[in-house]
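Help wanted!
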Amino acid sequence: MMMEKRNMRKGKTLLALVLAVAMLFGMAGCGGEGSGQTDGQNGAEQEGIRTGTGLYAVPVIKDSRPEEPKEVTFTTLNGDEVTYNQNTRRIVCVFGSQDVVAFGIPLLAYEGSTEPVGYESFYGDAEALMNTSPFSPEEILSYEPELILVNERMSASQIERLSKIAPVIPLYTDSTDFAQRLSYIGEIFGMQEEAQELITYEETLRENMVKELKDLGLSDRTLTIFTYLGNISIPPMRGWFMNTILYEYVGMKRTDKVKEFMEDESGVAYEAISSEKLKEYEGDLVLFAGDGVKTISTYVTENVGWKSLDAVKEDRVGVIDMSVYAQKGVILLYEQYAQLLEALKAAGKIAS
Amino acid sequence: MSKEKANNQTRFLVFITIGLVLVAVAFFLTMCFGATRISAGEVFDAFFRFDSSNFTHVTVRDIRLPRFLADLIVGASLSVAGAIMQGTTKNPMADSGIMGISSGATLGVVIVLAFFPGAGRFLKMGISAAGAGFVTLLIYLIAYAGKGRITPERMVLSGMAISTLLSSITTAIILKNGLMTQMVRYTSGSSANTIWKDLAIAVPFFAAGIVTSIVIARSLTVMNLGEDVSKGLGANTTLIKTLSTIIVLILSAVAVIIIGPVGYIGLMIPYISRYMVGTDYRLVLPTCAVYGALFVSIVDLAAKNVKPGMEYPIGLLITMIGVPFFVYVSRRQEGDQFYG
Amino acid sequence: MDRIGRIVARAGRFFLGSRREQTPAARHKARVMRIVALAILLLVVFLVGCCLGPYALQIGDVVKTLLGQGTYKSNMVIFDFRLPRLCLAILVGFGMGASGVIMQGLLHNDLASPGTLGVADGSSLFVTLYVALVSKQIDEPMLLPVLALIGGLISAGIIYLLGTKKGKPISSTKLIMTGVAMGACYGAVATFAMYVLDESQLEFIQRWQAGELWGTEWQYIRVLFIWLVVFGFFAVRNARILNAINLGYDIATGLGVNVKLAFSGLAFLAVGMSSASVAFGGNFFFLGLIGPHIARRIVGSDTRYLLPAAGVTSSVIIVAANILVENVEWFINIPTGIFVSILAVPYFLYLLMRAA
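Answered by r_m:
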């Protein structure tokens, strides 16, 4: 039971083993069935022990809403008044399911553009919507939902169309403010307490990461993340959550040149940086973000400009999988922070 | 007749000398100008007093030189392939981009990206070369199955149809797999990331293709007089046809694996070369090779210096030059200009 | 099995059998019968399209709903989700097919079409650039066909200017070659534009260029319908003139047709119909080419019959492709136009080789 609730990546047998031990401790600790909250905290400590840091997995929350229908009227972020059954279990989420499932709320279907590998336990029997862009109203109808959750950027006319199927509530999708996003969802379902618990979790994670980096002496250093999409470049500030975590939440520095490159949205995203100039973009710390993999492409390792970086010569490049940061959502945070911390440790190898 | 021939030979010698001198100039400029400016003295040092700890030397020898050579190889390959294709398919507008060969290669790259994301250099090169080869064969199949009765226009249309089909499939795979941003990069064509390893793979094929093409150049000229004439002169047309198909296939694939899909070079350079030295393939092919190499290296030099430090994909620049040329050629095309 | 074989053979004879009928009246009757048969085929495909979709509806329910006796949900499925798409597909098919017939007739070349002449590409580029660079949202449905028409006319003008020479007769192959070249040019411009777009705009453009039925709202369909009816009316009225031009420009002049005026008028109609289709339906490159081709094999080349027949044939193709895309799990999320291409290109290559 508890094992299912962990974030497990495929093939991580070692993690499974540790979790099995953790489960034994957990069972002994709270004597069988405890409240969702205690479960979470117990497991959390174990996770923290595993990585030797203050990072731990998201607390597991149970859907605390009663079964009987309860009609409520809610003002959405667009200012629309929407009346719906707050306790409904028939929900289709077209965007942002990574926050919603953290509340333990069951979904009928979720956006098909993301595969929740490693997070299956949060999704239960929910199905992936097949039509992703554009979505298909008929497919949504075929689930006979009582509530539809959508993207905040969806146009009013589209919302109107979907409203004929069921009440539609847009979620905050651009905001990187977890407190705003989570308390909004808490309000929608009358689960304010649970929202607070998740907000506290996110804050703790952030604080622990900052502390960890300070202890390692990395927090005041400049950092550059390189990636390879047909040519070596730096992922733009917007759209990649690792940038938000590192440069906004945790407060890592970057050189002016890197900052300018990342925030210049007038030109081309992932503009090719000449091999001859690559060195000028190097920070004290260097990470490489693989696209869907946690390795450095041979196209990069064989690049002469790349080989000229000090970090490469001294073999201290931290590697992350960029695709982990394509979405933001509270259930993803642990993996996102843990991967960054590990990579930063590798990158700061010779920091002393 | 023979006076004109002698005249063409003189012109050939003059033009090829000019071409080679210009390539040398382009070489010098490419070594000096780029993301950073490197003085002639340092370039000299990089070649003759190489110091591996000096990054300027490394830049010259391991970034600029391989890239320059890649441009030369691509330009020469595409031009020679274009000239041969134009002769053997009786289509003065044949070109690896127009005829859809590049779209075959692009499809290959997308298949690798979508289904073998961790694939290494060799697999990617292999599959995109296979894609290019497939389209080349298809085009020759259409050209030969039509027994030479297919007009140039119809050949261009079939090329367009093939590239529409293949790029449709490419789009489908991209949309299904969400590879949008990556694909825009891969389809634009650039030699910026060339390293010696790429050249080591490409050069043997390139050399084999060019040498064979020069060897069969005389037969190609004879064949252009018409198959009956060439049979009368004792030429083995089937052998020549097969060889030239293989040459086109190899040279197009070489270009595609180095630089990605780039069109119009194979149209422009042979056209200009014929204007310079006439229609004898023994003269046309070397001229194509030299001027093709020159053209690509100059465009790449420009692409690097538009905004120093950033890379502009030369594929797009070449298309912008190539399209007006294509329109010009198709306007000039009276049906009797080249091949009766 | 035998019976099916016999039925197929008979259907084949019915559609493709040689036109032995001697009297004009008999010929007329046979052609009308064939067009009616095509229309029935379209109706069948249309009904199949009505019955299939992620929300399960029985045929009985579909018929009931169509007759106005549906439940809230079945009404929504049919009238809000399935019918708009199907109607749009049919209209786009009609527009592209009829436009192809006119272009092929005007140029005496069966390889002419909105796609090969680069007109559709011009419309599509114009509209996508507008949507991507000027306005992110389309609020005014009337603006789209107008923009597409401007784009289509501009590119038709460019192609005409570049593809013809003063004092020389119009060469259709030259026009087509210029069209192909301009198509490549638009492609290059679009690729440049793609460099500055964000992911969602990029996807929109890619989908549009590949041909996606996106304007599935009744207001768009109404605009397209009226547009096509008006243009189609003039096209049918002028079918005889097109027939005359089809015999040759000189013969047409001899028959008292003002060729210059008729040519530009009919070209305008053709560009107008393809532009509106492109505006709401995206770029269906080969539809305007193979639709008329197949139709010509069925009803012959008399424009009066060919126009409706080509429209219906193109509609059948696009509706069938759309059903595949909507209902086969493996194909979901793939633009409809890609299937049209996959169907059409082999046929097109076959045509090129056969006609050589």
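OP: Thanks! One thing I noticed: The domain at 2-189+197-306 of chain B is CATH 1.10.3470.10 (ABC transporter involved in vitamin B12 uptake, BtuC).
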